[in-house]
Amino acid sequence: MAEILIIDDDDSMRSSLWHMVKRMGHQAESASTLREGLEKASSGAFDVVLLDVSMPDGNGLDILPDIQRTPAEPEVIIITGYGNPDSAELAIRSGAWDYIEKGTSLKAMTLHLVRALQYRQEKIASRGASVTALKRHDIVGNSHKIRDCLDLVAQAAAGDTSVMITGETGTGKELFARAIHSNSRRAEGNFVVVDCAALPETLVESLLFGHEKGTFTGAEKAREGLIQQAHGGSLFLDEVGELPLSVQKAFLRVLQERRFRPLGSQREQVSDFRLISATNRDLDQMVRDGSFRDDLLFRLRAFAIELPPLRERPEDIKELARHHVDRLCERYGFATKGFAPEFLETLTQHSWPGNVRELVNTLERALASARLEPTLFPQHLPLDIRVQIARAAVEQPEPGAAPQRVTQSLPRLQDFRETVFAQAEKQYLSDLLSLTGNDLKEACRIAGLSLSRLYALLSKHGVKPT
Ligand SMILES: Nc1ncnc2c1ncn2[C@@H]1O[C@H](COP(=O)(O)OP(=O)(O)OP(=O)(O)O)[C@@H](O)[C@H]1O
Q1: pTM
Q2: Which of 56, 155, 412, 426 could bond to 461 as cystine, CB 3.0-4.6 Å?
Q3: Which residues line ligand 1 (CB under 6 A)?
C-alpha cells in the first residue's frame, strides 16, 4: 500500500482525489495550503504527492524542489486547472513525474498514479540493488543530487556504452569516470586518461594512435598509442571539446570500428575499450558553431551524466570537508583536526565557483595556516573568502543586481514567499482591471479564473474596480 499526499485548495477536487486514492487501496492524506502540504511532506513518508499549482499561499511549482528534497523523495504529479506550456515545461524540467490538467478524467488520473507508483517501486528496487553494491571510489556526498548521479554511475557501469560526463570545472568528472571504470567489467583493465586540452596539436595523433619507428623526426622508437593502452579497459577523454577537428574525424572511425592505424604503419590494430568523455563546454553550441562534429557527439553521448555544481548541494560540504581534511592531515602527518561550528558555517556560505576542487584547495590552505593547532576556525581560511562573505553579509544589492548571499535577519522563506506573492498578486489584479477597463468577464478569461474566484481575490487584496 502506497502513501499519497494531495495538496489542493479546491475542496471538491481534494475530495475526489482522496476517494480515488482510497479506491485504489492506498493511504491518502490531504492539505489545502502549500505550507500545510510541505509540513506533511516533510514529516511523512509519501510515495507520490499530487500538487496543485495555483494555491492561496503561492505557486505549487515553487515548493516542488522542497518536496523532492524531503526524506522520502516522493514523485510529484503536478495538477492544475490553468495549464500552460511554460509551467508544464518548468514542472518537467524541475523533475516532476508528470503534469496533468484538472479536466482530465478520474480514470486517466488513476492511470497516471498507477504509472508513477510503478516507476517509483522499480526505481527504489534498482537503486537499492545497484547503489548499495557500488564502489564509491572516494566520491563523498549524500545529497539527493549526488545520489541521483551515483545511480547513473551504477547504470553506466553495468553496461558498456560510451558515457559523457558534463559539469562545471572541479565538480568531480574524473572521479566519476574512474568510478564507472572500477565498477564495470573492465575494472581489471587500464583506465587511460587523455587530457585533450594538454595534447599538443602536432602530436595528438601520434599520442592517440601510436607510431612506428622513424615516422617523423624524433620518433626514435615505435610507440604504443593511448588507444591501444586502453585495450580491455577504459579510455577517458577529458576536456573532449578541445579535440582538434581533424582528430575528431579519425577518432569517429575508431569509435565505429574499434580499429586504427598507428602513424607510419601499414597494419591496422584493434582495441577493445570503453569510452568515457568529459567536458565543461557546451558541445551542442560547438556543433552549431562548426567546431565539433555532430556525428561524434552523438556517439560520445550515448549515456549522459551531468554533475551538479557544489552550490546546488551545500548539504554535502560538511562531509566533503571532513573527508578531505582527514586525507590531507594523513598526507602531512598531522593529527586530524576538529572544526569550529563557524568554520563549517563559513564554508557553507561560500558559493564555490571552482566547486569541490576549490574547496579542497581552500582546506589545504586552511591546514597550512593552522599547522599544529587542533581546531580549524574561519580565521584559518583564506582572506579573500572571508572578505567575500563579510561583504555579502552587509551589502545591500543594487536595484536589479544579482542576489547576494546574505546571512543576517532574513524572514522565514515561507513568510518571505507569502509577502512577495501577495504583493505580486495584488499588482496583477490592479493591472488586470485597468487592462480590461473593469470588464470582469474579460478579466476572468485572461486570468483563467472563475468569477467567484476573481471576486474572492479582489476582496482579499482590497482591489476595487475604478
Ligand atoms: N563528490 C566528491 N567527493 C570527494 N571529492 C571530490 C568530489 N568531487 C570532486 N572531488 C575532488 O575535487 C577535485 C576535482 O575533481 P575532478 O578532477 O574529478 O573534477 P573535474 O570535474 O574533472 O575538474 P575539471 O573539469 O577541472 O577537469 C579532486 O581533488 C576530487 O578528488
Answers
A1: 0.64
A2: 426
A3: 138-141, 167, 169-175, 238, 278, 280, 320, 323, 356-357, 360
